[in-house]
Write a structure and sequence with these properties.
Length: 241
Amino acid sequence: MNKGNQLYEGKAKKVFETGDPDLLIVSYKDDATAFNGLKKGTIAGKGVINNKMSNALMRMLEKEGVPTHYVKELNDRDTLVKKVEIVPLEVIVRNISAGSFAKHYGVEEGVVLAEPTIEFSYKNDSLGDPLLNEYHALALKLATREELDAIKKYAFKVNGILKKFWLSCGVTLVDFKLEFGRLADGSIVLADEISPDTCRLWDSETGKKLDKDRFRRDLGGLEDAYREIMARLEQKMEAAK
Ligand code: ADP
Ligand code: UDP
């Protein structure tokens, strides 16, 4: 499958048409941004890592019964996916306080939450991705009640599967962002990516951050952290063969 016209260039990926109207190719870049695009940089090799990690995790989720957009990894940076109409919500699941949650609610980072939480922001860069609740999402016709129910069910299921997997790699899944989309038949599937750009992943023993917070917070050792988290995943996958 070859790349056709470029439909979109985002902050981390490009999206191309294919010969098939139901399929797209996403191409992962090394570009990194934070704070709604205010901070820009590159992380050498990130695109390859995010592509391969997201694909490995989506294949795992599919096996466990979570429908995803994943079709086929084409090469180091390019993946064939089912074209969806993205539901304009960033769906954030948290197990441990960090980032904006810690700030909003005055909790220190690293506190284990009594229960996993879910929150939504409106995926709209010009508004700065504002937080919203389910009533807002319904009022703005961003999704239907049935779609929100499916999204919540899948998001918590993804959390259970990924938390267990990362723990087996010696990594704590702190929080993450998911995006969902509608297929032509209206059904909801997991889309976009799952990677160190979209998850907080801490070494379970040392607490070392193995994710994009190293870029957001200028902690250094970016490339090494991305390589390390990928190596942990690959080791585990290899051992499971
Ligand atoms: P951003 O748009 O936030 O800068 P990216 O650089 O990751 O993000 O761009 C990828 C874009 O492709 C995102 O807007 C994402 O919602 C969208 N997308 C992801 N998966 C699919 C899919 N299967 N079908 C259509 N669009 C998708
Ligand atoms: N996240 C993301 N894209 C966004 C905002 C958040 O992938 O536009 C991820 C982020 O990597 C983290 C989780 O969602 O794993 C929660 O992020 P938070 O709300 O704490 O925001 P931040 O502190 O990054 O502003």
